[in-house]
């Protein structure tokens, strides 16, 4: 079953949802919902699938977003709703060329995930640079604290986003460094989104770990995004 789900995830050719690991600074309008329903798979030594992912974002105030996310996790070591996130994003500055937000989060992530391990508190500072009418450059800086073993690390993500009518293309580099690791985890990620309705989009992304190691992690994400 896991193999079939991963095959579906990596072979599907359309998409919806926030396909990149990095965050952008933008938020829904006051009183507006953005709901992402998705599946995500990881493969390195073992398979891990988060499906379904239910990611709800709501504009609770002008320029302020509340995020609640939960997912059912299936892996070699666990099965159940072991993935949870609650966050507040504040878009505190935006003009025609630049936007920046503060995005504190509490996350409980699968312990055998390629990415975060267990419970974390995070502070993300996402920034958007509008290079042209169709081209944006996003930079995401994150401080991550692990309360269970008093560890901390930094994350850095950046991607370019090119939008042409109903089609949006993404190209990302994501890096994560931890105290017990001698080098950063580096991921190259590509994504695509098709906006087939004003309020509905379909997304996909596929990423590969960039390393000299023989076993390199692979991730995939696909889902639908609803805005209302």
Q: What structural class is derived from the secondary structure elements?
A: mainly beta
Unreliable spans are 1-17
- The name of the CATH architecture is Beta Barrel
Tell me the name of the CATH homologous superfamily: monomeric porin ompg
Number of strands: 12
Strand order of the largest sheet: 1-2-3-4-5-6-7-8-9-10-11-12
Alpha-carbon Rg, integer: 17 Å
CATH C-level category? Mainly Beta
CATH topology tier name: Porin
Domain count, please report it: 1
Beta strand %: over 45%
Brief characterization of the structure:
This protein is mainly beta and 228 residues long. It contains 1 helix and 12 strands. It has a 12-stranded antiparallel beta barrel.
What does this protein look like?
A hairpin with an 8-residue loop joins strand 5 (98-109) and strand 6. With 228 residues, this protein is mainly beta. It is built from 1 helix and 12 strands. The chain has one helix at 2-11, and strands spanning 33-43, 47-61, 64-75, 79-94, 98-109, 118-130, 135-146, 151-164, 167-178, 185-197, 200-209, 218-227. Helices cover 4% and strands 66% of the residues. Residues 1-17 have low confidence and may be disordered. The protein has a single domain (2-227), classed as Beta Barrel (Porin). Strands 1-2-3-4-5-6-7-8-9-10-11-12 form a 12-stranded antiparallel β-barrel. It is globular.
